[in-house]
Amino acid sequence: MKFKARVWKFGDNINTDLILPVQAFYLPAAEQPKYVFHANRPGWAAQVKPGDILVGGKNFGMGSSRPAARSLKNLGIACLVAPSINGLFFRNCVNFAFPAIECPGVDEAFQEGDVAEVDLESATVKNVTRNSTLKGRAMPPKLMELVKAGGIYPLLEKEGLIAPRA
Amino acid sequence: MTIAEKILAKKSGQKKVSPGDLVTVEVDTVVMIDNSFIASRWRSIQKLRDPARLVVVFDHRAPASTEDAAAAHRTGRQFVEKFGIKRFHDIGYDQGISHQLVADHGYALPGTVLVCSDSHTCSGGVFNCLARGVGEPDVVYSAIKGETWFRVGETVRYELSGKLSPAVTTKDAFLQIAGEHGDHATQNVEWGGPGVAGLSIAARKTLTTMSAELSAEFSTFEPDSAMLDWVRARNSAPFEAVHPDTDAKYAEVRKVNLARLEPLVAFPDTVIENSKPVAEAAGTRIDQAFIGSCANGTMDDLELAARILRGKRVAPGVRLIVTPGSQNVFREATRAGFVGTLVDAGAVVTPATCGACGGGHLGILGPNETCITASTRNFKGRMGDSSAKIYMGSPATVAASAVRGVITDPREFLN
Q: A142–B22: do the CB atoms touch at under 8 Å?
């Protein structure tokens, strides 16, 4: 999986309550992305173009188990790259088929608006604007397959283990 | 191997695992909460690996706070009925926050694996159990398949020594660690050392619960007789507790002398790298004080609050909300007289629920309000309006602040 697009930058310790605030909990999944970063960067969600790449700081996605990764995916973000990602948030990325990789130094290598080229399999993150390349931690093949399959629910649905969405 | 490595090896059928491995492990216990049954999240399960491995708990909106929450509870009840799940905690006698119920009922057995969607599931690590939050999709997967995957991380060990001063709690110990060392993303945390013996199970549980805020993968205590007796008194199932190997490799071993700790508060908007001595916030006027959640809704916490509030009144203009972690804790605290003391002081004691901690109900903050909380998180917008300021401290600091109406050092009340 490869992505090339402009970069949005966020700092260290971005938490899930900022991505999916409690006010959006009971809304249909399709409406939840409107609230992404509503508290810390109002108006941002409306500026995102499908395929944009998010570069975060360390410990991205700290906090709750809420399906915040799904909101980023549904907002149109193609992939997340951060120096470190909270383990629970990372699971939700994999399970909702939202590509995410850890890449130390990425926060310093990019300015907002730079163009990034990300190759998920080789965990290569290139700053096209500044002509620099970083090597991240590759996603284990088993998890990569899960992302490619569309996440856990399509898999379980295919096996008849969960009911199709009504 | 460390405790986490040994349990992961055993549960994945391997002799040895090392940091960097990805392992598939058997899951012994799956806890499902009401949030899992919210319409936008729930996917109807057709088959379970073993209904006896499941626990179902309504805690985030209990009793139901909105029609949507009521609908989620209804879906949950139908699920419980369909599969004949015995360990079900509906609204009523057995109600509580899942992580408190795991302690009350001994659901987290030493040496086993327990998952729940909720991030604070690491709470169960207090019982030498590999417990962690995995999110809804993985809870559904674990319930159906009886297994899940984990990345094996490096382990940081905390060696506790000494004894806490009267006005200092393990919440302050957590704030010290979170302030000094920041996040532990991709790492496990292991707790041991001579200081553990002087800590109650409830006090230890605050440390494992708050490990979610360190972004730890797993947070586990070494077993001791107090822990093993606690579990055996509540669950007759057999288990094998796990000690770390003497040659276990740690990313780091850090010493914490409990006797040297002081009351701390985390300043608003983030928990980690944000702790300061309470003196630096002292005098800040508050609108609300909250004691509760899976981190601070135990008998220890309610007793400490009652000791400070006995014979006193909550300051005019301040709301003190106290939410026991389970109805079992509520009953015990009532029998011990703590609930009466708190209510006499003007506190509002609510039924056991996640409540104000997650901004769900029973104590939501309004615009520009200031709150001091003994709960799990102080993120911007966490407890209501995003302009509200949330300071986090121990139950002692919160109770002392409620009496004075401003953030207050609890040592003014307890020596």
A: yes
Digit-coded pLDDT (tens) for A42-51: 999 999 999 9
Is the CB of A149 inside 8 Å of chain B's CB atoms? no
Q: Is A138 on the interface with B (CB under 8 A)?
A: no
Q: What Cα–Cα distance (Å) separates residue A67 from each residue in A29, A72, B383?
A: 9, 9, 18
Q: What is the pLDDT of residue B51?
A: 98
Residues 308-327 of B with CB under 8 A from A: none
* Complex-level ipTM beyond the 0.90 threshold: yes
Give the separation between CA B122 and CA B376, rounded to whole angstroms.
12
Task: In whole angstroms, give the CA distance from residue B126 to residue B231.
Answer: 11
Write down the pLDDT at residue B331: 98
The enclosing H or E element of A47 equals helix A44-47
Indicate the residue of A87, A160, A165 with minimum beta-carbon distance to B46: A160
**pLDDT given for residue B262 in this prediction:** 98
Which residue among A66, A152, A161 places its CB closest to the CB of B47? Answer: A161
A162 contact residues in B (CB cutoff 8 A): 43-46, 140, 144
For residue A88, the chain B residue with the least C-alpha distance is B134
C-beta separation of B113 from B29 below 8 A: yes
Q: Which of B311, B285, B315, B292 is nearest to B391 (CA)?
A: B285
Q: Distance (Å) from the C-alpha of residue A153 to the closest C-alpha of chain B?
A: 7
Residues 60-119 of B with CB under 8 A from A: 66, 68-69, 117-119
Two tokens at B74?
């209804």
Those residues of chain B that have pLDDT short of 50 are none
Q: At CA B137, angle to CA A161 and CA B116, rounded to 5?
A: 110
- Could you give the percent of chain A with pLDDT greater than 70? 99
Phi, then psi, of B252 in degrees rounded to 5: -165, 150
**Overall CATH class of domain A2-158:** alpha beta
Q: Which residue, chain included where needed, has tokens 């006010």?
A: A23
Q: Residue A26: is its pLDDT beyond 90?
A: no
Does residue B189 sit in the same domain as residue B300?
Answer: no
Among residues B235, B258, B281, which one ends one of the domains? Answer: B258
Give the separation between CA B363 and CA B250, rounded to whole angstroms: 42
Spatial contact of B376 and B269, defined as CB atoms under 8 Å apart: no
Q: Bridge-partner residues for A2, per DSSP?
A: A119
Domain harbouring B398, CATH code = 3.30.499.10
Residues 26-85 on A with a CB inside 8 Å of B are 26-29, 32, 38-40, 58-59, 62-67, 84-85
Q: What is the pTM of this model?
A: 0.97
At residue A165, the pLDDT reads: 81
| Residue B312 structural domain | 264-412
**Which 8-state DSSP code applies to residue B199?**
S
Of B242, B258, B274, which residue sits at a domain end? B258
B284 and B341 in a single domain? The answer is yes
Count of domains forming chain B? 2
pLDDT for A23: 87
For residue B394, give the nearest of B227, B272, B275, B256 by alpha carbon. B275
Residue B415, pLDDT score: 76
CA distance A154 to chain B (A): 11
